[in-house]
Amino acid sequence: MFSWILRGCRDECSASDQLKQARDVFVAKEAVLQKKISQEMERAKEFTKSGNKQAAMQCLKRKKYYESQMSQVGSVQLRINTKEKMIADHMGNK
After folding, report:
1. Which interval of the chain is the signal sequence (predicted)?
2. Domains in the chain, please, with CATH?
3. Buried b vs exposed e over 23-56: b needs ≥16 C-beta within 10 Å?
4. pLDDT above 90: percentage of residues in the chain
């Protein structure tokens, strides 16, 4: 799963650095998704006020999609944190 992150790593320090970079990327993705979710909610409210229920439903569907994407990003972040802890424990045991 993490082969693309760890590609070219020869030691634990390099792997740790790459995991930190990957975590930063996913934190940024999470922020973008959160912004998109709030935008879709605002758009859905505007469409509901103007009486365009179909457009409001489309906004809510996109919001739901973004929420599922955010859930996936969260699970990847959890796995990255787990890998970082494993590497830190391994470095401590040496």
Report:
1. none
2. 12-93 (1.10.287.1060)
3. beeeeebbeebeebbeebeebbeebeeeeeeeeb
4. 65
